[in-house]
Design a protein that fits this description.
The termini are close together. By secondary structure, the chain is α+β, with helices and mostly antiparallel strands. The chain has a single domain, classed as Alpha-Beta Plaits (2-Layer Sandwich), CATH 3.30.70. α1 runs antiparallel to α3. It is built from three helices and seven strands.
Length: 143
């Protein structure tokens, strides 16, 4: 048994759910989380104009060195905005060892946009699982 934890963009949740349903994954948990990665919460204006939606109130600051274009009316697409912590979604799945590669590839396919912030996937060993209702343990608790 393995524990899969994925940190994903908020706007890719529906695609991820559909991809996992297509390959037969039944048990999945999504949580609302905030955080930052290597980009330290920075998002380019190009991404802001695309599918990226941010609904949490955050303080916007331009990254030093980025300036408004000539007349000050628009921001160049490569300008980065620092958000601090960004809203993300965390996916949690407990799966049999033989299903891990298929599940991970499905998550990657549904979330890979080529932009910073596509997310991370962590795969951890599981010691055991217990179904509270029946008391079943180990692999039996997953079926």
């Amino acid at each position: 048994m393995k524990l899969i934890i994925a940190i994903l963009r908020e706007d890719r949740v529906e695609e991820t759910k559909e991809a996992l349903e297509t390959i037969g994954v039944r048990g999945v948990t999504f949580l609302y989380v905030t955080g930052r990665g290597q980009q330290k919460g920075r998002v380019s204006m190009r991404e802001m104009g695309g599918p990226l939606t941010r609904n949490l109130p955050m303080q916007l600051t331009c990254v030093p060195g980025d300036e408004l274009s000539g007349d000050g009316s628009s921001v160049p697409p490569d300008t980065e905005i620092a958000f601090g912590f960004l809203p993300k979604r965390m996916l949690i799945i407990i799966a049999y060892d033989e299903e891990i590669n298929r599940i991970v590839q499905s998550i990657v396919n549904a979330n890979q946009t080529g932009w910073h912030g596509d997310g991370r996937i962590f795969i951890c060993p599981m010691i055991s699982a217990l179904r509270i209702r029946t008391g079943e343990q180990g692999d039996k608790a997953l079926s």
